[in-house]
Design a protein that fits this description.
InterPro entries: 2-oxoA_DH_lipoyl-BS, 2-oxoacid_DH_actylTfrase, 2-oxoacid_DH_E2_comp, Biotin_lipoyl, CAT-like_dom_sf, E3-bd_dom_sf, PSBD, Single_hybrid_motif. There is one protein chain. This protein is α+β, with helices and mostly antiparallel strands and 472 residues long. Helix content is 29%, strand content 23%. It contains 13 helices and 23 strands. Strands 13, 16, 19, 20, 21, 22 and 23 form a seven-stranded mixed beta sheet that branches. A hairpin with a 4-residue loop joins strand 4 and strand 5. Helix 1 runs parallel beside helix 5, helix 6 runs parallel beside helix 7 and helix 10 packs across helix 12. The longest helix is centred in the last third of the chain and has 16 residues. The radius of gyration is 29 Å and the shape is elongated. It starts with a helix and ends with a helix. 31% of the residues are buried.
């Protein structure tokens, strides 16, 4: 019976969906006890310190138990749901009850008869067990019987434990992949068994799935996913003078990152006010260009391109400080971060290898990044590996600011509101489109001269966008 129970119930543990994260909050359950689930089906949405992520279940079966309620914060590696993979095969206790040492299950024939009689007197059906309490272990201790070779229970539980850890049973090995990668494969219609893994220890990565999906000529469209639930503050009692809100999720991660950055990297911020009238005219022309049809064209697109060109002209600014090895790491690629305000807090996803993208490709990547962030579907991988960042505070009507560096990055450019202001143009005061840029940089990596050159180059391009061609 112990072997049957351990084979029948599967515990799905909170995975590390963010490469090193230690906990996640359960935002919403999509299933309830008694629901039938299939391998790859999304069962819940969790919020890590970086993003909201949907978790697919790696088993077929029936939901036996939800171990945590919505809103609970769960450590990585803790079981969050139990799946009955052999429903209809009779009543059995969950895996915890089956985990009693073998010495205690080998009772005498008299004890077994008494146990069976007691079981017959109990009402049929599943018996509720309080989460975290399980079934009490017997206080009776017996000397284990002598055995030769490997115990049968060890032989039975070894493949089960391997499958519970996501490694699959020896008779039918499961491809190694994290839950978000499994969901991506399911959405793209890719069988993970056919994907060649390139990750460490044979783990399939998102890039492997995309590579396997690339040859497909006409993939079926993926059904749109409704935006995830947004935490709503509890109603404030009438006359209350204070409200306390738990610090968790994105807000908790942002606070830790900003404190760490502000008190680790010595910040310097420089400002420049400039005439961007020509850039605004170019934006309007690009909107009417057939090559940019259907793409997101706005001032941020040209500001991003200007920053990329400035980095190309001043590559030393694109670096990182390695405190452990006492080295400056020069980056020969640009993963351009875009700060985005979402209902869950500030996140900074980045465009991988932005330096290699054409203007239409950059526009497409920006549009996808913004749409994904607004829907709350930004993945942890999309927020890792950034090198420099742009934050557009101008959308809030703000002229400028002193942005704090994203941890591990060397510079961040703040863009202020673009306003019609009097400006001296060709010797006459005329109304022109004017904005203010602010560049914060890590003074350990970037000295004043280099930082000034980068900011001056961005300003020069936006004042005369023809330099996008001559300087690129």
């Amino acid at each position: 019976m112990t072997q049957d129970a351990s084979l029948r119930f599967r515990e799905f543990k909170m995975p590390d969906v963010g490469e090193g994260l230690t906990e996640a909050e359960i935002l919403k359950w999509y299933v309830q006890p008694g629901d039938t689930v299939t391998d790859g089906q999304v069962v819940c949405e969790v919020e890590t310190a970086k993003a909201a992520v949907e978790l697919p279940i790696p088993y077929d079966g029936v939901v036996h138990e939800l171990r945590f309620a919505e809103g609970a914060t769960v450590d990585v590696g803790t079981s969050i749901i139990t799946i009955d993979v052999a429903p209809g095969s009779g009543d059995a206790a969950p895996a915890e009850a089956a985990a009693v040492p073998a010495a205690q299950t080998e009772a005498s024939p008299v004890a077994e008869a008494a146990t069976e009689a007691a079981e017959e007197d109990k009402p049929k059906g599943r018996q509720p067990v309080l989460v975290g309490y399980g079934v009490a272990e017997s206080s009776t201790k017996r000397r284990p019987r002598k055995q030769t070779g490997v115990p049968e229970q060890a032989q039975a539980t070894a493949p089960v434990q391997a499958e519970m850890n996501g490694h699959g049973a020896p008779t039918a090995p499961r491809p190694l992949a994290k839950p978000p990668v499994r969901k991506l494969a399911k959405d793209l219609g890719i069988d993970l068994a056919t994907v060649t893994p390139t990750g460490p220890d044979g783990v399939i990565t998102r890039e492997d799935v995309h590579a396997a999906a690339a040859p497909a000529q006409a993939a079926a469209p993926v059904a749109p996913v409704a935006p995830g639930p947004v935490s709503v503050p509890a109603p404030v009692a009438a006359g209350a003078r204070e409200t306390r809100v738990p610090i968790k999720g994105v807000r908790k991660a942002t606070a830790a990152a900003m404190v760490g950055s502000a008190f680790t990297a010595p910040h310097v911020t420089e400002f420049v006010t400039l005439d961007v009238t020509r850039t605004m005219k170019l934006v309007e022309e690009l909107k009417a260009d057939k090559d940019m049809a259907g793409l997101r064209v706005n001032p941020l697109l040209l500001i991003a391109k200007a920053l990329l060109v400035a980095i190309k002209r001043n590559p030393e600014v694109n670096a990182a400080w390695d405190e452990v090895n006492q080295e400056i790491v020069q980056k020969h690629y640009v993963n351009l971060g875009i700060a985005a305000a979402t209902p869950r807090g500030l996140i900074v996803p980045n465009i991988k290898d932005a330096h290699d993208k054409t203007l239409p490709e950059l526009a497409s990547a920006l549009g996808e990044l913004v749409a994904t962030a607004r829907e709350g579907r930004t993945t942890p991988a999309a927020m890792q590996g950034g090198t420099v960042t742009i934050t557009n505070v101008g959308v809030f009507g703000v002229d400028t600011g002193t942005p704090i560096l994203n941890p591990g990055e060397s510079a961040i450019l703040a863009v202020g509101a673009i306003k019609l202001q009097p400006w001296v143009h060709k010797g006459k005061v005329k109304p022109r489109q004017v904005t203010t840029l602010a560049l914060s940089f890590d003074h350990r990596l970037v000295d004043g001269e280099l930082g000034s050159k980068v900011l001056a180059d961005v300003a020069a391009i936006l004042e005369n966008p023809k330099r996008l061609i001559t300087w690129a």
